[in-house]
Amino acid sequence: DAGVIQSPRHEVTEMGQEVTLRCKPISGHDYLFWYRQTMMRGLELLIYFNNNVPIDDSGMPEDRFSAKMPNASFSTLKIQPSEPRDSAVYFCASITSLAGLNTGELFFGEGSRLTVL
Amino acid sequence: GQSLEQPSEVTAVEGAIVQINCTYQTSGFYGLSWYQQHDGGAPTFLSYNALDGLEETGRFSSFLSRSDSYGYLLLQELQMKDSASYFCARGGAGNMLTFGGGTRLMVKP
Fold this sequence. Notes:
The complex is a heterodimer.
Chain A: E1 5-7, E2 10-13, E3 19-24, E4 31-38, E5 42-50, E6 53-56, E7 65-71, E8 74-79, E9 88-95, H1 100-103, E10 107-108, E11 112-116
Parallel strand pairs in A: 2-11
Antiparallel strand pairs in A: 1-3, 3-8, 4-5, 4-9, 5-6, 7-8, 9-10, 9-11
Chain B: E1 4-5, E2 9-13, E3 18-24, E4 31-37, E5 44-49, E6 53-57, E7 60-65, E8 70-75, E9 84-91, E10 97-99, E11 103-108
């Protein structure tokens, strides 16, 4: 079974440009999480969805960030306009509520490394 | 700010045993997970404790004391490939995981 799939793996863009990161969760997983990782702030939860509905977006840094999950197999994280401080690795992770609290295991994608010049 | 505290770096020699400690805030606590992350890679799950006590998985063990809001990851028979960052993560409502800042483990020959 394929794991969590993210694209692009690497993106370099200029300040002010729009960035769209994509994620396909593991089939059957009903929770999807977006994390951001930087040296300074570590792994931060940005937003998570349950059954395609955003549950908690309190970690989204500001209005320039938005996330959608139009269906169970696809989610996007968009930054518009991008700024150099957005440079980070963005991870998507998924889990099934059937396991969830009993296992503490999230399945992470390989991440999207974003560099904003 | 971080609701979990763990050391930033640990160094050990090949074949040794190392313990990485983690303290956490108790509010809304469900359990404590541990993840390993190699440079340039994704976090991968190692173990999980919901109840007090020791969980053993091969060379790795994890311990939890809910009364002390404390847990640790124990790595035995260290190998060079164990050099990585290790994160404790606090489980909460909605399957949310909040991660600690990570401990960078360097294994030396």
